[in-house]
């Protein structure tokens, strides 16, 4: 097998873009992505370095963490073309929007959150909820249910970002 595959080339570009650096003093992206995806670190290393073909299960796990559907991952891995994974029927225009959410009923802004590529469903849901919280504050209305959980989740994410030095400390300060 060649030392590079379509998937390894894509992962080498996508991982740093999503906060999983491969080189430099902040490297460790392979280990962190492996942990987040539930894949052994050695297997992730072989995938990133093009020494093994991915399993469908591993593609699904990596895609879930990076915010891509399995069909996108099959294309990135070179195992299918976009045409092969595209339905011949009318495709769902918003496949990542949970079925209980009606796109037509979403206010401007929230609709776009659900269309952003590269975010997991959970990240989109948190972002949409945070928009509702900010809007309720601006409008002087009662905040939506779940505000405490959303703030806790956001605080956890920001804390992790600070630990990893993803953001400059001058732009993000710990709230105590």
From TrEMBL:
<dbReference type="InterPro" id="IPR010982">
    <property type="entry name" value="Lambda_DNA-bd_dom_sf"/>
</dbReference>
<protein>
    <submittedName>
        <fullName>Transcriptional regulator with XRE-family HTH domain</fullName>
    </submittedName>
</protein>
<dbReference type="Pfam" id="PF01381">
    <property type="entry name" value="HTH_3"/>
</dbReference>
<dbReference type="InterPro" id="IPR001387">
    <property type="entry name" value="Cro/C1-type_HTH"/>
</dbReference>
<dbReference type="GO" id="GO:0003677">
    <property type="term" value="F:DNA binding"/>
</dbReference>
<feature type="domain" description="HTH cro/C1-type">
    <location>
        <begin position="33"/>
        <end position="73"/>
    </location>
</feature>
């Amino acid at each position: 097998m060649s030392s590079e595959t379509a998937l390894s080339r894509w992962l080498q570009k996508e991982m740093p873009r999503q906060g999983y650096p491969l080189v430099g003093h902040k490297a460790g992206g392979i280990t962190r992505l492996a942990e987040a995806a539930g894949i052994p670190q050695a297997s992730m290393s072989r995938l990133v370095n093009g020494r093994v073909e991915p399993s469908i299960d591993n593609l699904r796990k990596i895609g879930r963490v990076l915010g891509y559907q399995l069909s996108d991952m099959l294309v990135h891995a070179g195992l299918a073309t976009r045409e092969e994974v595209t339905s011949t029927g009318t495709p769902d225009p918003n496949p990542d929007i949970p079925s209980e959410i009606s796109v037509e009923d979403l206010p401007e802004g929230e609709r776009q959150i659900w269309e952003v590529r590269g975010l997991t469903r959970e990240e989109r849901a948190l972002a949409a909820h945070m928009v509702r919280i900010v809007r309720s504050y601006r409008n002087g209305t009662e905040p939506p249910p779940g505000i405490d959980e959303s703030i806790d989740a956001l605080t956890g994410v920001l804390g992790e970002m600070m630990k990893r030095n993803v953001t400059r400390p001058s732009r993000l300060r710990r709230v105590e």
